[in-house]
Design brief:
The protein has two domains: about 150 residues, Aspartate Aminotransferase, domain 1 (Alpha-Beta Complex), CATH 3.90.1150.10; about 260 residues, 3-Layer(aba) Sandwich (Aspartate Aminotransferase, domain 2). The protein is about 40% helix and about 15% strand. The strands form three sheets. Strands 4-10-9-8-7-5-6 form a seven-stranded mixed β-sheet, with helices on both faces. Strands 1-2-3-13 form a four-stranded mixed β-sheet. The structure holds pyridoxal-5'-phosphate (PLP).
Length: about 450
């Protein structure tokens, strides 16, 4: 049927009848019925078009409905829809080759999963088996997924309801100058003190008991905190000294988002394991995985790897990854992300920080930016309390509603909005989105004191 308000209402009613939604009180949600999407936009049945400044869950790096990726999925579906992971398949091997070609250093073997959380689960399993140790260190202000180990590693309130004391996870503080737990006054102090804190945590936990340290290269959902120069190299050195596996989680930051293929490329650091998902194929078909170093791969050369998934390396997912990675190279999409960030988004957001009393800090690079919204620039009190809900969250809810009224779909988390459009966004589209954001920020300004 043609898009109409009546069709939209029917789609929503059908959803509410049987679909159980993630992270939600089922009786309190009002999902927008979506009729279609293309490039940087999606639209509903009522004629409203939204510029997607959230890239859904920060995954549509290549934009919606890229014709080359759509065609590749169609062609693969006609050829071979599914086959078990144990077989050798052309499209899976090619996806692995293209990923290995892009990952840093000697991360040349690829274990495929269906998404990011499973990638984290398997990276942790590999690290534990490789070292024979149990504990894993992860950072506060992080997100690693919603399955058992991944949610325990997560350093935000989504962990609390699923926390299991026996999970063998210890949290520490990463560097974040604007809200420093170390009372640092500049990036160099923050870096030095964060590394000293990590050293102390390891000393008191027992270095011989720690299998891995996992970090998002640039923490994403937690606020896009670009680490200070030297921090990741420092963590690498600490891991080497103690025989600890270094895992970088690039599920959100990888595949072009930061203006490089991987965020690790900005820092010249190679982890032992790198987890990916989202941008690898922009989520056209569920896919994630772990890129594995030569040394860890060697551990499982004669000893079986005790992990697997029915859909590991699914042909439709791999075909969409091959088409995505080739299109990103041919169309200079990673370069576009870097250029738009440097020439359009970064300067515009910094100018907004000057004008708006509610914008405490602007952070980011590529198409990966955060606005830290505050009630007061001097005190840096967040616009809404940490983990706000209900009435406490009203200023952020008003801000999001203003964006949507203007035709922009924003990413909102706690007291932050992130500008995370597709890596394919044009300068004109970015400028349009930034203008809507600029106007919507007036609602946040009204709550400053
Ligand atoms: N790791 C990071 C850094 C993420 O941002 C996410 C999802 O947002 C995940 C892991 C979990 O990925 P998934 O939702 O595909 O399981």
């Amino acid at each position: 049927p043609a898009p109409s308000a009546a069709t939209g209402a029917a789609v929503k009613a059908a959803d509410r009848a049987h679909v159980f939604h993630s992270w939600s009180a089922q009786g309190l949600i009002d999902p927008l019925p979506v009729a279609g999407a293309e490039g940087s936009y999606f639209w509903d049945y009522d004629g409203n078009r939204y510029l997607d400044f959230s890239s859904q869950l920060v995954n549509t790096n290549i934009g919606h409905q890229h014709p080359k990726v759509v065609a590749a999925v169609q062609e693969q579906a006609a050829k071979l829809c599914t086959i078990a992971p144990g077989f050798a398949v052309d499209v899976r091997s090619e996806a692995a080759r293209l990923i290995a070609e892009r990952t840093p250093g000697d991360l040349d073997k690829i274990f495929f999963t269906n998404g990011g959380a499973e990638a984290v689960e398997n990276a942790v399993r590999m690290a534990r088996l490789h070292t024979g140790r149990a504990k894993v260190l992860s950072a506060y202000r992080s997100y690693h997924g919603a399955t058992a180990a991944a949610i325990n590693l997560t350093g935000d309130p989504r962990r609390w309801p699923s926390d299991t004391a026996s999970a063998g996870v210890v949290h520490f503080w990463g560097p974040f100058l604007y809200r420093s737990p170390f009372h640092a006054e500049n990036e160099a102090q923050e870096c030095e003190r964060a590394l000293a804190h990590l050293e102390a945590t390891i000393a008191f936990e027992g270095p011989q008991s720690i299998a891995a340290i996992i970090l998002e290269t640039i923490p994403g959902t937690a606020g896009i905190m670009v680490p200070p120069p030297g921090y990741l190299a420092g963590v690498r050195e600490i891991c080497d000294r103690h025989g600890i596996v270094f895992i970088l989680d690039e599920v959100m930051a990888g595949f072009g988002r930061t203006g490089h293929w991987f965020a690790a490329d900005h820092f010249g650091v190679t982890p032992d394991l790198l987890t990916f998902a989202k941008g690898v194929n922009s989520g056209y078909v569920p896919l994630g995985g772990v890129a594995i170093s030569a040394e860890i791969a060697a551990t499982f050369e004669t000893r079986p790897y005790p992990g697997g998934l029915t859909y590991s390396g699914h042909p439709l997912a791999c075909a969409s990854a091959v088409a995505t990675l080739n299109a990103m190279a041919e169309e200079r999409i990673v370069e576009n992300a870097a250029e738009i960030g440097e020439t359009v988004i970064g300067p515009a957001l910094r100018a907004m920080a000057e004008r708006h009393p509610s914008v405490g800090e602007v952070r980011g690079l590529g198409v990966f930016w955060a606005l830290d919204l505050v009630r007061n620039k001097e005190t840096r009190e967040p616009l809404v309390p940490y983990n706000a809900s209900g009435a406490d969250n009203a200023p952020m809810a008003e801000f999001a509603a203003a964006c949507k009224r203007g035709g922009l779909w924003p990413f909102v988390n706690m007291n932050r909005t992130h500008a995370v459009p597709a890596c394919t966004i044009t300068a004109a589209e970015a400028e349009k989105g930034l203008a809507i954001l600029d106007t919507a920020l007036e609602t946040a300004d009204a709550h400053t004191v």
